[in-house]
Amino acid sequence: MKNKNIETSKFLSYVLRHKPESIGLELDAEGWADINALVNCAQQAGQSLDEALVRSIVQGSDKQRFTISEDGKRIRAAQGHTTSTVSISHTRKAPPATLYHGTATRFLDSILREGLKPGQRQHVHLSDNRQTALAVGKRYGTPVILCVAATRMHDEGVAFFQAENGVWLTDRVPPEFLSSEEV
Ligand code: HQG
Question: For the segment 141-161, what is each residue's pLDDT rounded down to a tens digit?
Fold first, then answer.
């Protein structure tokens, strides 16, 4: 992606996941914003955004971070929210046997002691492949991959959800379901 697009994608993540109020935008409980309203609010806040740019970023997003509604009029972030105004009703889904979480080695002791916690976000984020987990872990320093015994958790009644972009979500992962893998 071009630099301008990366910058705009980060801006969209910021307003659609975290701080819609920073540009006076309202999201509904499912996280949707009207695309025209988003563009207007962004422009008033001094961002050079137009509808074509929004649509090209949605299409070009490597992780498919954003979803456009079926009628083409609204946009939302697929996952990763911290704003408490949004509570997406993701559908429960049985996970694959193992899911993966990438993090940095410096967090490992704490995670193996306390389990994986959502931090600022609404869920713990997991992927169905090691490669994605590794890329996420590298953002924080020396990466480590945690394997999550997802089917075992699910069998014990824990809810799993899959966001529109394929990211797996759950509330927390207790340590007994975790094992670390050197990379
Ligand atoms: C860590 C990206 C200490 C956890 C990715 C992580 C993802 C603990 C950090 C999405 C802990 C939270 C989310 C504990 C968890 N002790 N550290 N008990 N429990 N942690 O950003 O999964 O590019 O909220 O390991 O693809 O890193 O933004 O979560 O390091 O899907 O679209 O606390 O962000 O997508 O960090 O990343 P985050 P994440 P985007």
Answer: 999 999 999 999 999 999 999
Tell me, in angstroms, the distance from the centre of ligand 1 to residue 139's CA: 10
Residues with CB under 6 A from ligand 1: 63, 65, 80, 103, 107, 110-111, 114, 116-117, 119-121, 125, 136, 140, 167
Percent helix / strand / coil, the chain, rounded to 5: 35, 20, 40
- β-sheet bridge partners, residue 116: 173
Retrieve residue 50's tokens.
């137009």
Question: Which residue's CA is minimally distant from atom 39 of ligand 1?
Answer: 125
Q: Say if residues 170 and 160 touch (Cβ distance below 8 Å).
A: yes
What would the mean pLDDT of 23-29 be, rounded to a whole number?
A: 98
Angle between helix 3-13 and helix 51-60 axes, rounded to 10 deg:
90
Q: Own/partner pairs for 40-43, CB < 8 Å, 24+ apart? A: 41/15, 42/11, 42/15
Question: Under 8 Å CB-to-CB from 125, ≥6 apart: which residues?
Answer: 79, 80, 101, 136, 167, 168, 169
Instruction: Parse the chain into domains and list their residue ranges.
Output: 2-77, 98-181
Q: Is the pTM of this model over 0.85?
A: yes
Question: For the domain 2-77, what is the CATH code?
Answer: 1.10.10.970
Class of the CATH-defined domain 98-181: alpha beta
